[in-house]
Structures are given as C-alpha cells and as structure tokens.
Write a structure and sequence with these properties.
The chain is of the alpha/beta class. It has 16 helices and 25 strands. The protein folds into 2 domains: 276 residues, Aldehyde Dehydrogenase, Chain A, domain 1; 193 residues, Aldehyde Dehydrogenase, Chain A, domain 2. 39% of the residues lie in helices and 23% in strands. Helix 5 runs parallel beside helix 6 and helix 10 packs across helix 11. The structure holds nicotinamide-adenine-dinucleotide and (2E,4E)-2-amino-6-oxohexa-2,4-dienoic acid.
Length: 484
C-alpha cells in the first residue's frame, strides 16, 4: 500500500491521520494519504519563510533558472514514474496523459525560467523641476510565500502551471494538491531534492479544504499570496480567507463554455473539435464545451455526426489499447454527473446518445465510468444548460444568426473559454470580440502557447497567468527613481 506523505522542509513527513486514495478505474484503495493539520501548515510556512531569507532568496536568476531547467529534465527522465502516478490517480487514457499532462508538467518549468531571464522592466528618463535629470526604473521582487491550491482534473499540469512561474520569480511555494490526486505533487518533492532545490522552496501539504490543510493554509498569516484552480464557490471561500491581511489572489475557476459551429465551417474538423472539447478527459476540463450551438442548415447533420463520434469512443481503463474515455474522478463526482443526466431527462431533453452508465465488466464495474452524453431540445433555462456539470456531456441547440449565437454564448455568469468554427475570417474576428471570455479558440480548442495570457472573465476567475502575465501576480513591481 502506497503512503502519500507531506513534503516539508525537504523531508517526507507522516502524520497520525490518514485517508484513502482510491483508483477511479475500479474504486480500489491504492494508498493512504497523510493529512496535514495546523502544526504541519505552521512548519511548512516557517520553512518557506526561512528559504526566502536563505540560499534561495540570495540565488542569482541564472542559477535559479538553471535549477528549474534541471527540474524539467528530471521530470522527463522520470517520465514513466510521473505517468504511472497520474494514471493511477485519475484513470485517464495513457495516450492523453503521455501527450498532455506529463510533457506540460516539464514544459511549465522551462517556459517560465526562460521568461524571467529575458523579460525587461521599464525605465524612463525625465527632466526634473530644477532643470536636472532623473532616471527611474522598475525592479521585480518575489511576492513571498505562495499557497498553490489545486484541483484533480489535470493534477501535474495545473500544479506546475503555478509552481513554475512562482519559483522562477524567486518565491517559495506550498502546494495543496486535491485530496483525490496526491501522487504527482508528492513525487515532485523527490525531483526537487534530487536536483538540489533548497529545502523549504517547494513543499506539499495533503488534505481537504474546509477544516483541513486547504483552509489552514489559505488562512495562514504567513502566506503572502494564494493561487487557486478549482470551483467558483471554493474560490469565494478562499477569497474570504485572503481578505484577512489583504493578500492577493489569482483564480482559475469554473466554466460553462459555449462551442459555436457556423454552417460554413470545415464540417469534419468541427465535429472532431467538438468531440474533443466535449469529451476529452471524460469532460473534466474547465475549458470544455457543455453548450454547443450549431447553425441551423447543418444542425441535424452535425448532431448525427457527433453522436457517431461519441458512440465510437471506447470506454475503459488507462492501459487498454484504443481507449478514448476513462472514468470520472470519484464515486461522488459520478453521482453528481448522473444526477445531471437524470435532471436533463426530467426537464424534457431528447437523449441523442448516452445518458447513463456503460456496461463494465469485472473490477471495472466498480469504476466511475459514465456514458458520453448528448442532449437536444432543452430550453436555455434548464439546469444542464446553465450549470457546470464537469462530465462528458453537451447540449446542442440550433441558431440562425451571428447575433443570436453571441447572445446565447454570453448568457452565463461564467466567462472562461469558447471555441468557434467558421471559414469566414470576418465572422471569426467579430465573434472573438463579442463573446465575453478570457480564451477564444477559432477552428481549434485547447491549443496552447504558454507565452499567452490564460484565465477567465466573470465567475471564471481573477487575473491572468501565462507568459509575462504570470509575473504580474508572482512579483511585486517596485519603481526606483534616481535624481541625478
Ligand atoms: P474544488 O474547488 O472542489 O477543489 C480544488 C481544491 O481546493 C482542492 O485541493 C480542495 O481540497 C481545495 N479546497 C476546497 N475547499 C477549500 C477551502 N474552503 N479552502 C481552501 N481550499 C479548499 O475543485 P475540483 O472539484 O478539485 O476541480 C474541478 C473544478 O475546477 C471545476 O469547477 C473546474 O471548472 C475547475 N477548474 C478550473 C480551471 C481553470 O483554469 N479555470 C482548471 C481546472 C479546473
Ligand atoms: O493549459 C493550461 O495552462 C491550463 N491552465 C489548462 C486548464 C485546463 C482546465 O481544466
């Protein structure tokens, strides 16, 4: 039985209190996770502060960024260990984790190491009132001790997306991984030690949110900033905690994203794109498309084509060849998704495909598998059209005009992402300007350039990370004015 220990001040730390880690593919216990309490949070914060005042705080940018490249190289060297850990925790298809989750885990360190070395700060020269000269320039200093609170859907990718820039900017981090996926954050502790990252710079505390490590960490006065990815209502709780001490937050929250397919789109590419955006990672991607709007002339054909693609997805565990759809993360999440499947039926949906549990055999019958599901015929007011389900499902509705598509897409409190399919450049530009989101993909989805701003509008988040934008959160910008 694996033991998932906390990683505090360079050491793996057991606690008296453990909880089970279960595999989503069969609900079997795969490990015991050691829950951190207030004492472990205090110890981690003290170690993080000590590291800021020690070797790490004094380290040159060149040395620091060399170390972060070494972290990335070591993740790649131990690729199979990270892959096995992520697959056990999430049950996602091997092909997905080996192409996205683990490579991005390494890339997130390299990109931000390179950015901090190469991005200049502003400087100005001016004439002073006495006729002299002054020069001002900006310098960036680390924010301090950063709490990194993470979800379970892309554990290594989303955690390193925060840890990479935070460390590149010279901060120390305390990571609280999701209670569902403790493995890769813990493994990264081994990598940090083996490449020589000083003690206290990267730490991991396991546990839950309220009344546990998540709440203790985000309320701790020794934490200088909180970066969080997860549900919008958790973001509200963390924001309340951050208000004490007026500490900054960076939030990547939920979404109810629209996909829009115009009649002039490359039909096959659009069907393939929406298949990914609705079903990839079993629909557990914040950027996923749970509301699809298709222009009326191609509506029936599109629904039939997406149905065929959904039904062709092979459902199964990570290592079965050809699997395109893994399980949901937990029994609790499966119950939530199935409750939305039931609500859709109760609200009068036409179930185009799916709507329940697939027949699974042997141990996998205990896994958290659900069918990919497509609905039509629901009013825009129904729960599955309004609320984030976070499962492999979408509702498809027809639209007639560009204005109507914009109105439908914007009728949500969220504002994370959209994917628009059209061959008309004018339509593409107008849609990108009119849809109120942080991320607009045209003829693509989840296509990433890590130098660009990433984040959501409205209830989908606060702030932007990615490229130089990450520096805005992870550093304080100080202006220095020199009277010559
Ligand atoms: P969640 O909000 O339930 O949990 C996320 C993390 O917060 C976990 O580590 C949890 O233990 C912790 N937590 C919970 N309550 C807390 C509290 N009161 N104080 C401190 N920490 C607390 O989210 P989840 O279910 O793990 O992830 C799914 C959600 O994440 C979806 O809503 C999805 O849209 C969102 N998400 C958003 C993005 C994005 O980039 N916008 C990316 C991935 C996931
Ligand atoms: O690609 C990224 O950097 C990122 N933050 C993706 C988020 C995916 C949400 O589930």
């Amino acid at each position: 039985m694996k033991q998932f220990l906390n990683f505090i001040n360079g050491e793996f730390v057991a606690t008296g209190k453990t909880f089970e880690n279960r595999a989503p593919i069969n609900n079997q216990v795969i490990g015991q996770v050691h829950e951190a309490g207030a004492a472990e949070v205090d110890a981690a914060v003290a170690a993080a502060r000590a590291a800021l005042g020690g070797e790490w705080g004094r380290m040159s940018v060149v040395k620091r960024t060399e170390l972060l490249h070494a972290v990335a190289d070591e993740i790649n060297r131990r690729f199979d260990d990270f892959l096995a850990a992520e697959l056990a925790d999430t049950g996602k298809p091997r092909s997905l984790a080996s192409h996205i989750d683990i490579p991005r885990g390494a890339a997130n360190f390299k990109i931000f190491a390179d950015i901090v070395k190469n991005v200049p700060t502003e400087s100005f020269q001016m004439t002073t009132p006495d006729g002299g000269t002054a020069i001002s320039y900006a310098m960036r200093t680390p924010l301090g001790v950063i709490a990194v609170v993470c979800p379970w859907n892309l554990p290594l990718l989303l955690m390193t997306w925060k840890v990479g820039p935070a460390l590149a900017c010279g901060n120390t981090v305390i990571v609280k991984p999701s209670e569902e996926t403790p493995a890769t954050a813990t493994l990264l502790g081994e990598v940090m030690n083996s490449v020589g990252i000083p003690k206290g710079v990267y730490q991991v505390l396991h546990g839950f949110g309220p009344g546990s490590a998540g709440e203790f960490l985000t309320r701790h006065p020794g934490v200088d900033g909180i970066t969080f990815t997860g549900e919008t209502r958790t973001g509200e709780a963390i924001m309340a905690a951050a208000a004490k001490g007026v500490r900054p937050v960076s939030f990547e929250l939920g979404g109810k994203n629209a996909g829009i397919v115009f009649a002039d789109a490359d039909f096959d590419a659009a069907v393939a794109g929406i298949t990914r955006s609705a079903f990839e990672n079993c629909g557990q991607v914040c950027l996923g498309t749970e509301r699809v709007y298709v222009q009326r002339p191609i509506f029936e054909r599109f629904v039939a084509a997406l149905k065929a693609r959904a039904e062709a997805l092979k459902i199964g565990p990570s290592d079965e060849p050809g699997v395109g759809l893994g399980p949901l993360i937990s029994a609790e999440h499966k119950a939530k998704v199935l409750s939305y499947y039931a609500k859709a039926r109760a609200e009068g949906a036409t179930v185009v495909t799916g709507g329940g549990e697939p027949p699974m055999h042997g141990a996998y019958a205990q896994g958290h598998f659900v069918q990919p599901t497509i609905w039509t015929g629901l009013p825009e007011t129904s729960s599955v059209v309004r609320e984030e389900v976070f499962g492999p499902c979408c509702h498809i509705a027809p639209f007639d005009t560009e204005e109507e598509a914009v109105r439908l897409a914007n009728a949500t409190d969220y504002g994370l992402a959209t994917t628009v399919w059209t061959r008309d450049l004018g339509t593409a530009h107008r849609m990108a300007a009119a849809i109120e989101v942080g991320l607009c993909w045209i003829n693509s989805w989840f296509l990433r350039d890590l130098r660009t701003a990433f984040g959501g509008a409205g209830a989908s988040g606060i702030g932007r990370e990615g490229g130089v934008h990450s520096l805005e959160f992870y550093t304080e910008l100080r202006n220095v004015m020199i009277k010559i």
